[in-house]
Amino acid sequence: MPDAPTTPGSPNGGLADDRIRALDAHWRAANYLAAGQIYLLANPLLTEPLRPDHIKPRLLGHWGTSPGLNLVHTHLNRVIKDRDLDAICVWGPGHGGPAVLAGSWLDGSYSEVYPDVSRDAAGMARLFRQFSFPGGVPSHVAPETPGSIHEGGELGYSLAHAYGAALDNPGLLVACVIGDGEAETGPLAGSWHANKFLDPVHDGAVLPILHLNGYKIANPTVLARLPGPELDDLLRGYGHEPIHVAGDEPLEVHRAMAHALDEALDRIALLQRTAREEGIAERPRWPVIVLRTPKGWTGPEEVDGLPVAGTWRAHQVPLPGVRENPEHLRQLERWLRSYRPEELFDADGRPRPHLLAEVPEGDRRLGANPHANGGLLLHSLPVPDLERYAVPVDKPGATLHEPTRVLGGLLEKVTEDTADRRDFRVVGPDETASNRLEGLYRATGKAWQESVLPTDEHLSRSGRVMEVLSEHLCQGWLEGYLLTGRHGLFSCYEAFVHIVDSMVNQHIKWLKVSRALPWRRPVASLNYLLTSHVWRQDHNGFSHQDPGFVDHVLNKSPEVVRVYLPPDANTLLSVADHVLRSRDYVNVVVAGKQPCFDWLDLDQARAHCARGAGTWEWAGTENGAGEPDVVLAAAGDVPTQEVIAAAGILRRHLPDVAVRVVNVVDMTRLLPKEEHPHGMTDHEFDALFTRDRPVIFAYHGYPWLVHRLSYRRAVHPNLHVRGYKEMGTTTTPFDMVVRNDLDRYRLVMDVIDRTPGLAVRATAVRQRMQDARTRHQAWIREHGTDMPEVAEWSWTG
How far is 694 from 702, CA to CA, in rounded Å? Predict the structure, then answer.
C-alpha cells in the first residue's frame, strides 16, 4: 500500500474546509438517493410538490443503516483517490442496499453496467423506481450491485468474506463495515480471529469498521451498549487497536472520520512495509474503526409523537403511511428537501462537479474495482495430468487405496504449481491430515501468525492451507477468495459441514443471480470434499453420522448445484479434475478416506464419470439376456462395495438370475432432463434402470432422496432404496451397514423378495442371508471386529 501523499489541509492539520464541504455534499446526495429509492415512484428531483401518486404503493427497504454506510462510502472515496488505493468494501449491514446503490450511481459505475439507469434525472427516476419493485432489484446488497462480493440477505459473514478477499492479494485493501446487529452472530464473533491467519507479506489488509448505530429491528445491540472501556478491551483482546469516531453533527463527524481513516491507513502501510522490508517479528495489531452515529441519522426525528431517528423505529421505513397520511407526506417532503437537492444535482439531474471532487476514477471506484467481479481476474488452474496419480487396476476389486490420500497427491501438485501465483487454497476445520490430504504439506504449510512451538508441525506464516475449528470461518474465507478471482477446496467431515448450511444457501443464490448478469464474469466453483463420512464414523459414533448435506444442496437451484459420489480412487481423481476446472457451481464430492477397493482404471473411471451413471457389466450376470431380472444400483463407495458383494453372492447361489449392476457417480443424473442440466431423459433412464423390473438401490445417504429425484420415472413403483436411516452408534464398519439394512445380505434378501418367482425357489438362499446377519451380531459382540468373511472379502467374480 502506498504511503499517504501530502494533501491540502487546514492549519490544524485536518482536511481543508472546501474538502470537508465536498465530502458533505457527496454524503447528502447519497442520503437523498437512498431515501428516494425507498419512497419515490416519480418526481425524483422534487421539481413539484410531492403528491401521493409520486409515492410507491409498497414501501420497502432499510433506511436506518444507510446514512452510516453512505458516510463510509464517501470517505473511502477520498482516501482511495488521495492514496491511489486498490480497495473494495464488504458491506456487512447488507440490507442497506439503497446506500451502496447510491454510491455506485454517483461514481458512474452503476450507469456503466446498466446504461438505462443513466446518471441524470431519467436515470435517477429508474434508480428509484426499480428498488424493491417487481422486475427491479433487491433491497439489500446483492449480485446486481456493482462493487459487491457479499450477499446482504443474511447477516454474519462480512468479516470472513473480507479476509478471504485479502488473502494472496498483497496490494488490496478490504474495508469491511460490520453492523452492530451482525456483530452479535456466532460467525461474525469467530471471524475476529481471522487476523491470526493474515500474512502481512503475501496478503492484503482488512480494515474493519464496526458501525454502532445502537439498534437492530426492535432491540438495542449488545456492543453498542457496552461501556466504552469494555468494548475497547474486547477489540484489543481480538488483536485490534481501536480508533473511534462518534457524533451526530455532520461536519464534525466528517472531520473525525477523515482523520480516523488516515490514521488507520497510515498504520496499515507501516505494518506492511515493516513486515515486507524487515521481516515479521510478531503478529501485527491491525486497526479497527469504531463508528458511532445515530440510526436513521438525518431522517425524521419524530413521527406520530414517537421518537424515530436514533431509535429502532428508524430501522426500515420511518414514515410508513405516506400515501394515506397527509402529515407523513409533508414530513417526507421536508426530509428530502433538507438535503438541498438543488445544490447537489443540476437541472438535468446530473451530480454537480463539486460533490464528485473526492470520487476516484476508473477501476479505482468502489463500484468498478475488478476484485469485486473476480471472474475478470481469474486464471485457469494448472490441474496436472491424472495419469501421474492414478492407481493401477488390473482387475476390479483386487487392490485397495485410500481415495483422499490419492487425491492429496494431485492437490499437492496443484499447490506447488501455483506457488508463485498464489491463487489456490485448501480450507478445513482442523482435518486436513485426518482426511488424508497431508501431502499438501510438502508444497505449503498451514497459515499461522501466532507463536510456534518446537512440537508444532507444518505451521507457516505464508502457508496456503487454512485450518481453524470454525466451519463458518472456513466457508467465509473460501467464498471471499473465490469471488475475488481465485480457486479453492473446502475439506470437511461430512456430518459437520451442516454448520454452514445457511452460508452455502446464500452462495448458491449469489451464483444463480450472477449467472444471469452478463457483466458478472464466471468465478471458480465452490468445491466441497466431504469425507470421514457416515459409513466410516463407526468409531466416533452417532453424533458423527449424518449424510444429509447432499439433500440440502440438491434442494437448491439446479443450474448451480452438482453432487458427486465417486466409488473409488480413480473416479475421485476424475471428479476432482472436473470440479477444479469448473466455474459458477457448488460441487459436493463425497469420498472416503479409509482403504477402498479399486474398481476402475483411469480410462474406465473417466468414461464412467463422463456418463455420470452406467452399467458395470463385469459385476452383473445379464450375459446378453436382454432386460435383466433385477437391477442392483449403488451410489457411494460403501454402498458400491455392498452391491458388488451382493452381486457376487447372487452369481454364486442364484446364477440363473440376470442381475444388472448400475453405479451412479453424479446424483443429479437421476433427475429428469427438464429439471437439471445433468438429468437423464426418460429414454436414457429407462434404458439403464428398465421400466418395470425391480431396482434395489443402495445409496450413501438418506433413502428418500433417491425417491424424490426419480419419482416421475416409470420404474419408480418398483424402486426400493436402502440407505442411512438414523441407525447409528459406536460399532464396527460392517455393523453400520447392517444396522441400516444396507449390507450385502440384506440386499440379496431384497432381490429375492422383490423379483417375481424368486421368493419360493430361493427360500434356502434367503435363510442363509438371514443367518449370516445373525452370525454377524454374535461375532462382533464377542470379538469386537467384523467377521473374516466380511473383513477379508474381495471381488472374485
Answer: 20
CB atoms within 10 A of CB 528: 27
Closest by CA to 64, choosing from 34, 37, 36, is 34
φ, ψ (nearest 5 deg) of residue 343: -85, -20
Q: How far apart are CA 627 and CA 718, in angstroms?
A: 15
Whether 124 contacts 349, CB under 8 Å:
yes
For the chain, give me the number of helices (H) and strands (E)?
Answer: 26, 22
Q: Are strands 172-179 and 205-212 parallel, antiparallel or unpaired?
A: parallel
Q: Which three cell numbers stand for residue 637?
A: 463407495
Burial of residue 515 (CB within 10 Å: 0-12, 13-18, 19+) is middle
Signed CA dihedral, 68, 69, 74, 76: sign only: positive
DSSP 8-state assignment for residue 5: P
Q: What is the mean pLDDT of each run of 10 residues along the chain (797 residues)?
A: 44 79 98 97 96 94 95 98 98 90 97 97 97 91 94 88 98 97 95 97 98 94 96 98 97 98 98 93 93 96 94 93 95 97 97 97 98 98 98 96 97 98 96 94 97 96 96 97 98 92 95 96 98 81 85 94 98 98 98 96 98 97 86 98 98 96 98 95 97 97 96 96 90 93 98 94 96 96 94 91
Phi, psi values for residue 747, rounded to 5° = -65, -40
As a whole number of angstroms, the distance between CA 312 and CA 221 comes to 10
445 contacts 460 by C-beta, under 8 angstroms? yes
Give dist(CA 733, CA 700) in Å, integer.
14
Q: What is the pLDDT of residues 425-447, one digit of tens each?
A: 999 998 899 999 999 999 999 99
612-792 is a CATH 3.30.530.20 domain: no
397-596 and 612-792: same fold?
yes
Q: Which CATH number is associated with domain 21-299+322-373?
A: 3.40.50.970
Q: Do 438 and 476 contact (CB within 8 A), yes or no?
A: no
**Rg of the chain, C-alpha, whole Å:** 30
Q: List the domain boundaries for the chain.
A: 21-299+322-373, 397-596, 612-792
- Residues 756 and 630 sit within 8 Å (Cβ to Cβ): no
CATH code for residues 397-596: 3.40.50.970
Question: CA-to-CA distance for 514 and 172, rounded, in angstroms?
Answer: 23
CA–CA distance, 644 with 667 (Å, rounded to integer): 19
Q: Report residue 482 as a C-alpha cell.
A: 473465490
Chain centre distance of CA 229:
35
Q: Which of 344, 259, 244 is nearest to 31 (CA)?
A: 344
Helix (H) or strand (E) holding 364: none
This model's pTM is above 0.90: yes
Rounded Cα distance, 93 and 293, in Å? 14
H or E, element range at 410:
helix 403-417
CA angle 253, 259, 261 (to 5 degrees): 100
pLDDT tens figures, 384-430: 999 999 999 999 999 999 999 999 999 999 999 999 999 999 999 98
